[in-house]
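User: quick one
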Amino acid sequence: MAVDLLLGLQWGDEGKGKIVDVLTSKYNIIARFQGGPNAGHTLVFNGKKHVLHTIPSGIFHDDATNLVGNGVVIDPVIFKKELDKLDEQNVNYKTSLLISRKAHIILPTHRLLDAASEASKGKAKIGSTLKGIGPTYMDKTGRNGMRVGDLELSDWKERYRALADKHEAMIDFYNVEIQYDLAELEAEFFEAVEVLKSLQFIDSEEYVFQAQKAGKSILAEGAQGSLLDIDFGTYPFVTSSNTTAAGACTGLGVAPNQIGEVFGIFKAYTTRVGSGPFPTELFDEDGATMAKVGHEFGATTGRPRRCGWLDLVALKYACQVNGVTQLMMMKADVLSGFKSLKVCTAYKYKGEVIEHFPYNIEPENVEPIYTEFEGWSEDLTKMSDYSELPKALNDYIAFLEKALETPITIVSVGPDRKETIFR
Ligand code: GDP
Ligand code: IMO
Ligand code: MG
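Assistant: Done. Structure below.
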């Protein structure tokens, strides 16, 4: 059976966690394929909010298996905190949570290296979540990394020491002020590793292959968004993994011809957290309203998210590189009350009008060209059927579907599981 993918089409935080949770009842296995605790996936049900960082968003469903794939990077300390939260909710993950032996481990010194690298960049910093993501993927591709499977070896602590010592020398090389007590960080790390080791480590690509063969349904859950992809995002202001559809093949061991539906998630407007270009960013009342009504604060770092209009040039690009087959539009409720809405349909790029996403979208090169739409004032959060949606919103949806040549099959009208309209 083919593997379906769900991924973000913008700069992350589109609402992936919510939709994975909503869709989990249709799947046997939910599998995260990349990223790590830089992600913050929010789920809301029964009046309670849950934020997951590394653990797949299907974990609250008793009958689903949740797999952390080889493409993910795991910080045992943060992972343990996530498990502690699940324990508080009496979630039984002992048999339903599986971890790939090939997933890489974030060491405390990776986090320190992330901080040192950012400090050394000054104003040009990426705005990293400081979770050690970049340095861990660098060690992976540099063939120095530590993997989950290494924890089963008797000499894993010696391997750890050698790598951590090397990192300390690298931190010195950056020559920046960062305060840390490595002994304290290591005590916490070693304790968390023991907790991690109590979970099931598996050869996940074999597991996924056999599950497919047995007709099990699998949903691959992405983290971040397409514009943060290491290859196709707004480099260097990106994350260090392939967040796009191809990342699911390498991050789980799924062959390209085994991919089924590709669900692309986007907000009805745009947000970004961290540094980097954002052509449709708003610095006015409208942007402030989106931030306020949409509660736009990072689920991982708490930083305010930058807000702006929907960027169709970027969205079309994301649909293309991912092969999106179905779109899901999130946070439509946040736009209620705007007299008019704008959508960027082209860029003025170095004086020329273009409709494709160019190499460089820095503000000196790109000026967005907008199409304006009538707004709506109805409160959408109480609506549960497509037929109830206001005409202006239906017109907005119809325009996007036509421009993106892809159906919008879910319209989300609130953070709760139930606030989801299927079309
Ligand atoms: P993710 O990283 O893609 O899983 O998204 P985040 O959880 O970081 O950010 C999405 C935020 O929007 C969370 O606070 C969600 O609870 C919230 N959210 C999701 N869908 C909707 C929606 O349709 N309307 C509103 N108002 N909030 C939503
Ligand atoms: P989810 O899965 C939004 C951003 C950071 C920074 C850049 C690099 O919740 O959508 P990193 O820590 O990866 O080195 O940071 O990427 N970023 C995210 N922004 N949502 C995320 O994940 C993000 N993960 C990383 O803000 O700009
Ligand atoms: Mg998030």
